[in-house]
């Protein structure tokens, strides 16, 4: 009798643990991407594009929090290729980040499989090829991570969602643009601007009176855009994985590499309306239009396009400050985002990173604190893992802008896992900048004009409800400041999202490290890792 009870008890435990094991296994999504050249003509001129499974732009990835997303990339181009997942946080695994500092590129006519988990994240992101100037020819797409059904989103459930990709565009293909940069000539102005790959004719079918979620990303190379919809307002609900205070805007600036999502309640009046994306801070201004097509519409979109800002830098900076965290809203987990009191944490290190245009050995380059980045033949992450000397040295870049002449180099900043740091992007140039940090979201605590100094930190930072994001803009002759909790071990790319600048050296890596080798802090090298450079044996 007694034995039977004990036995049942044991069986109970076994059954329970089996069940919980099954529940702990998160769903898998398998994607197979064949990447090829193909003819496209977004601006009416035939040109060579980069297609994924025959599509330009590439397919939208839709995943749910904690999903495993497995992407087998088959490279049918004539050049080595990598994709990076802009804003999708590779937790404990810079091995999957898809940049030349972490991965050997996928050679032509071969394939490589990315294995990523959408652990504890929601949000609107993008992907694109990180190699050479490939993304100038396509290969980009939307990457949405939706909340699990058990976690309510802090806004009205939309009737439907739209993924909207806005990009500046050139009639020259990626190799022609690369040749321009390699020759040292200035990068040309774009020839136009596209919404989901088309300058005029993208359309979004909607039902009057219903509310839609627009996930809008700037996947362009150089140009900030302003987005607006005729006779409609945009209620901002999310930027790059953070739920925002739901401010209502007539139009919204989205800088290169950034994503925002907003709710749009469609007018009851059944006519079509213009959707407009126009370039910011450029002369001339380029404009793309799409159509909000209402069910039962009796007239095509007509009338004046809604007016947007053109130069108006301060307008943009002011708008940036209105984008705030919703402290009581959840994100991927049920607990409120604001329960992490970032403003009360001690900053242990301040990095001031200044971008500059340089002439090095007679060629146009761009640098960060006077170092213009050059990719070594061996990815930094592999060199680190296999203890190969001579690939990089830590702190090969100064914490603040030096007076030294600019040099070519392989900049890696060494930091300790769990440090809480401040990064100030100081832009003393007359052009717009945009910075992206892989593996991290960060608090965008301050935007200001002129030279940053530590007095400004105390006076002008938002230490209460600044939103987190992955990409921050820096206005001409201005600074932007972020706070980052370095909680993700790995080798992480910190780069200009302005692609010609990144191609010519405006990037670096941040090595976030502790000496404990443990899968709790970082996953081991993937079994399928491609080897190259000094690691090739
Ligand atoms: C290449 O694709 C095949 C399936 O077609 C797969 O079995 C293999 O693991 C892939 N190779 C790599 C290195 O991921
Ligand atoms: C913040 O999110 C909550 C839901 O958690 C919502 O009720 C509230 O309206 C939001 N606040 C703002 C300012 O958007
Ligand atoms: C910091 O910058 C502000 C605004 O530009 C300026 O008024 C102040 O004098 C500066 N402080 C220092 C210590 O340089």
Give the topology.
Blueprint: H1 2-24, E1 28-40, E2 47-52, E3 61-64, E4 68-75, E5 83-86, E6 110-117, E7 123-129, E8 141-146, E9 160-169, H2 174-182, E10 192-195, E11 202-206, E12 211-218, E13 225-229, E14 234-239, E15 242-243, E16 248-249, E17 251-254, E18 259-265, E19 273-279, E20 287-294, H3 313-322, E21 349-360, E22 363-368, E23 371-373, H4 380-385, E24 407-409, E25 412-416, E26 420-427, E27 433-437, E28 442-449, H5 454-460, E29 468-469, E30 471-474, E31 478-485, E32 490-496, H6 499-503, E33 507-513
Parallel strand pairs: 1-4, 3-8, 9-12, 11-20, 21-26, 23-24, 25-33
Antiparallel strand pairs: 1-2, 4-6, 5-7, 7-8, 9-10, 12-18, 13-17, 13-19, 14-15, 14-16, 14-18, 19-20, 21-22, 26-31, 27-30, 27-32, 28-29, 28-31, 32-33
The protein binds 2-acetamido-2-deoxy-beta-D-glucopyranose (3 copies).
What can be said about this structure in brief?
The chain contains 6 helices and 33 strands.
